[in-house]
Amino acid sequence: MAMLRDIKRRIGSVQSTQKITRAMELISSARIAKAQQRVEAARPYAEAMRRLMSSLGRKAGNIDHPLLKERPEIRSIATIVITSDRGLAGAYNSNVIRAAERDMQAHGRDAKLFLVGRKAISYFKFRGYDFDDSWMGISDQPAVADARKVARRAAEAFAGGEVDEVRLAYTRFQSALIQRATVVKLLPLAEEDIIGEERHDGPHAGYVFEPEPDDILGDLLPRYLEGSVYQGLLEAAASEHAARRRAMKAATDNAEELIEDLTRVYNQARQAEITTEIMEVVGGAEALSSAGVSDTEIRGGRS
User: Fold this and answer.
1) Which of 12, 13, 116, 202 would bridge with 82, disulfide CB 3.0–4.6 Å?
2) Is the pTM here over 0.85, yes or no?
């Protein structure tokens, strides 16, 4: 009986856990759709910004901006690592953290860290890394203001000479099933990426810029950087929800299998207990018969 009670208690515990994982799976499914819409909605803005920067870059003279200045020697690299504030997302956080660590080791320079998300902060703090700045509470639903804070801190560090290069480690969202941990160079901005290639595939409108293109471009470069960071935050958020949904679905399926296995063990144990009771009754009856005690005497003794 004690074993049966333990098995039944375990079944109840697994069922309770399964309800939680199924609820989290449904929540993540709803959130991933919204996050994916935000990623797709931000892409036209990024494309329009690139076109505007390209047009301004070709009109401007020598582009001279602190965010474009290449360093003759790379002595220090800052890495922005974007993770989640919550766990239960499978290998989502560990993948991007490992990618950032591999990138830092490959460059072998003095490393500075700007961390987004509680998981990155906990990981690097536990392993004794020093980090220069951190942000929490923005990974789930990032806003433009959040991206501005991160981008401004990175731009200040680069323009002030604290670091010679800034890199961004995040998870690129490709689809609900595919997300890839990625590390890209953020600063200095490459002039060829800003100007792009001039196309002659049709008529182009002529623009009159006021103030001068150089001045406008100088104001747009920080916005372009903010847009890049914001895009990374949005893709990381969508990837987080997709990874959590996948992890919670796997947990729910595993719980279902465990419940089936425990139910089978419970039924087998219950059948064995019933069989044992029947054998005890039969054995007792045979023992009484062998002792010469009749059924009438047995019933009389009971009365």
Assistant:
1) 116
2) no
